[in-house]
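Quick one: structure for this chain?
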Amino acid sequence: MSPDGLCWRTGVPLPQSLFRPDSITWRINQEPALLLGGGRALLMQLAHPGVAAGVAEHSDFRRRPLDRLLRTLELTLALTFGTRAEALGAAQQINAVHQRIRGNGYSATDPRLLLWVHATLIDSALVTYTEFVGPVSAVDQDAYYQEAKLIGGLLGLANSRYPGSLSEFEAYMAQMLTGPELMVDARARELARAVLRPNVQRVPPPVFRPLEAITAGLLPASLRLDYELPWGRLEQMGFGAVRGALPRTLRVLPRRFRQVPPARTARARAAE
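Got it. Here's what it folds into:
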């Protein structure tokens, strides 16, 4: 990239962010509905004992859940919608935190843990979008997966660590879910309770039951059972109601209500 923001080969202006506004990454990640899949991604991550140990021993999200959630969202969205400088700055902050997270038998910079964490985010984004926004073609799913590798590279995960194609990625996810590497133990369940029923002042725990039902519905059935999440008739009906109503509602909403604030800012910047 040249200093004036032009491609040195063609002289064509380069996009200010890492992804183009017409990319599948922008299309999917701009949807506020994806926030409903956050619990799914976190519980899938915590099913890995190495991730659970790092969270239990180094994170303060149980004491300050909203602060940690907002900060994580800010950095994550900056990777997609921030300027190139903002995306690189967010990656540097995340990497600096990862460098400090290590303990007996685990390290946040371990490529196996990095791959699993990023895989849960990719998989959860596609699952949540499909359930609550609309279908995604196989071509677009593969494009989303391939584009996600760029973010993984910024976070220290070499491209060669990823499964090559979407089908290979799906095989990796299936292998992880059925293999011996994941283990939902008492610690993981305790952390999951903190995720699904955060200790927020003056907010009673029952307020978070819809989030728990949505997370249970999005999770693979094996993990839902391992976490002992309620999944009776009431939870299934609630999840089905959201899955049926939300896509219809989103189709009639003005576009500005279907873009997280960083996406609106990025589109305005791209238009200029």
